[in-house]
Design brief:
It comes from Streptomyces atroolivaceus. This is Y4yA family PLP-dependent enzyme. Keywords: Decarboxylase, Lyase, Pyridoxal phosphate. InterPro entries: Ala_racemase/Decarboxylase_C, De-COase2_N, De-COase2_pyr-phos_BS, Orn/DAP/Arg_de-COase, PLP-binding_barrel, Y4yA-like. Its cofactor is pyridoxal 5'-phosphate. By secondary structure, the protein is α/β, with parallel strands linked by helices. The chain folds into three domains: about 15-40 and about 345-470, Beta Barrel (Lyase, Ornithine Decarboxylase, Chain A, domain 1), CATH 2.40.37.10; about 40-245 and about 300-340, Alanine racemase (TIM Barrel), CATH 3.20.20.10; about 250-290, no CATH class. About 30% of the residues lie in helices and about 20% in strands. The protein has 13 helices and 20 strands. The strands form three sheets. Strands 1, 13, 14, 15, 16, 17, 18, 19 and 20 form a nine-stranded mixed beta sheet that branches. Strands 2, 3, 4, 5, 6, 7, 8, 9 and 12 form a nine-stranded parallel beta sheet that branches. The radius of gyration is 24 Å and the shape is globular. The N and C termini lie far apart (about 50 Å). Bound molecules: pyridoxal-5'-phosphate. Pyridoxal-5'-phosphate binds near residues 88, 241, 243 and 338.
């Protein structure tokens, strides 16, 4: 067996404490079935406060909006309703959910492609609408006039920023309007002055690049100048989400893993994944081709720290730190983190059905869960699950460890149904009846892709929280903030 390449997950409280309660987790899966998703509503409050301290450090004001799309949970949204956080909703269902969970319209922003029903409810209730382009602006203005709705506060979403003397561009996006088309968009807003009020501009870039985001943010400051030159009084710059999560405890493990993956793609070592999958890399006549199709599972800068660094970054052409530009103009900064606010907010549990030794010395572990139930592979996130015996705390299991290479197979009748194609190294071989815990799945991996394949039910979800008697739980839709032990429900 090759030298094991561990990818130990980063674990913080209260996730760590939950994992040291295997009996509690086994009882939950006994009662509610496998797979089971557990969310930790109190942790999302902590994540909001980490973002807020960055605002304070830079003396900035503005909303921290949770991008609901990253998790369908009611418990998390209701818990946030009890804080100062706001919501970013991207569908009619998410908007209805936010309203029903206790968010008032002035704490909600609507983003993404919008059907007329979604636009109508947003306009009717007074939610801020992020305008994706000319066509949406026209639809909204027509709807407002036709139904006699109140004037709607809008942000103009921009993309495709460029700067003179700057060697890079910001990413193209199919959402928003190219920054170069702002003038035409503002002309149209002028014509629809009775139906919409422009309160600012926005972007969302799906990139880890600080340079691109700095260019986009500076582009937004320039766009605000153009609005002001027309006599508008814009006050908000919304920089979307994409602050990211670092999933792994140890950057060196990630470096080692990715360099070994390159060696495997070049044929210099045995494969590191099922059927020699190499995550986008290949070798052509001894030259490495392709690029790594993986999320950077270890990030030295993520979440609120990423925002902090962005705000410290000098504007690419104006030179002053971006936070200074915002402060000088008294602009509110709005952020829409999805994944980053869900960091450490939950886990996915799966029962082991069978463990079988293969002819190559690895083991096939079959789970009562499939790859859509826990979409780590779909999102390119690599991390090791934790084996939970019913009566043994997992740290004790780690101490007596001897590594085993395993492949984690799902419960669909498909050869390709693997929770991850990577050969996972476990310090203890799981046996039938054990649980595998996949930590930190709340952001996109828990329910974004879940389906009813083979008429299997969707995983149940529970909200877990601690009080003086230890861990307690409720079904996700039965949880309200009154159930958390924390005395302060405000951040
Ligand atoms: C407009 C908008 N805001 C926020 C987000 C959340 O991004 P993340 O979960 O990476 O923070 C997305 C993700 O697609 C988005 O499209």
């Amino acid at each position: 067996m090759a030298v094991p390449l561990f990818l130990d997950p980063k674990l913080e409280q209260p996730l760590t404490s939950l994992l040291t309660s295997p009996r509690f987790l086994h009882d939950l899966v006994d009662g509610l079935g496998s797979p089971l998703n557990v969310v930790l509503p109190d942790r999302i409050v902590e994540n909001v406060s980490r973002f807020r301290s960055v605002y304070r450090r830079h003396r900035l004001e503005g909303e921290i909006c949770f991008a609901h799309k990253a998790n369908r949970s009611s418990a998390l949204v209701r818990r946030l309703a009890a804080t100062e956080a706001a919501m970013d909703v991207a569908s009619l269902g998410e908007l209805q959910h936010a309203l029903a969970s206790g968010f008032t319209p002035e704490r909600i922003g609507a983003t993404g492609p919008k059907e007329p029903e979604f636009l109508w409810l947003a306009a009717r209730t007074g939610v801020t609408v992020n305008i994706e382009g000319h066509a949406e602006l026209e639809s909204l203005a027509t709807l407002v006039r036709h139904h006699g709705l109140p004037r709607v506060r809008v942000l103009l979403r921009l993309s495709d920023f460029s700067g003179t003397g700057v060697k890079f561009l910001s990413r193209r996006s199919r959402f928003g309007s190219p920054a170069s088309e702002l003038t035409g968009l503002l002309d149209a807003c002028g014509q629809h002055h009775d139906a919409v009020e422009v309160i600012g501009v926005s972007y969302h870039l799906d990139t880890t690049s600080l340079e691109e985001k700095a260019l986009a943010l500076e582009g937004c400051v320039r766009a605000m100048d153009e609005c002001r030159a027309r006599g508008m009084r814009p006050r908000v710059i919304d920089i979307g989400g994409g602050f990211g999560v670092s999933y792994l405890a140890d950057g060196a493990q990630w470096e080692r893993y990715t360099s070994q993956l390159t060696s495997a793609a070049m044929g210099r070592r045995e494969a590191l994944a099922w059927r020699s999958h190499s995550y986008g890399l290949s070798s052509e006549g001894g030259t490495l081709r392709g690029s790594l199709e993986l999320y950077p599972s270890h990030r030295s800068l993520a979440g609120a720290d990423y925002l902090d660094e962005l705000l410290r970054t000098p504007a690419p052409t104006l030179g002053r730190p971006l936070a200074t530009l915002l402060l000088e103009n008294l602009y509110d900064l709005c952020v829409e983190p999805g994944r980053a606010l869900l960091d450490q907010c939950g886990l996915t549990l799966a029962r082991v059905l069978e463990t079988r030794r293969e002819s190559d010395g690895t083991h096939a572990v079959s789970l009562a869960m499939n790859s859509d139930d826990c979409a780590l592979e779909e999102h390119g996130i690599l991390l090791d699950p934790i084996v939970l015996h019913r009566d043994k705390p997992w740290e004790a299991a780690e101490d007596t460890a001897e590594p085993f290479g395993v492949h984690l197979h799902g419960n669909l009748c498909l050869e390709s149904d693997l929770i991850t194609r990577r050969t996972v190294f476990l310090r203890r071989l799981p046996a039938r009846g054990d649980l595998l815990a996949f930590p930190n799945t709340a952001g996109y991996c828990m329910d974004f892709s879940a389906q009813h394949a083979q008429r299997r039910p969707l995983a149940r979800k529970v909200a877990a929280y601690r009080d003086a008697d230890g861990w307690q739980w409720r079904l996700d839709d039965q949880y309200w903030p009154i159930h958390s032990a924390g005395d302060a429900h405000e951040v």
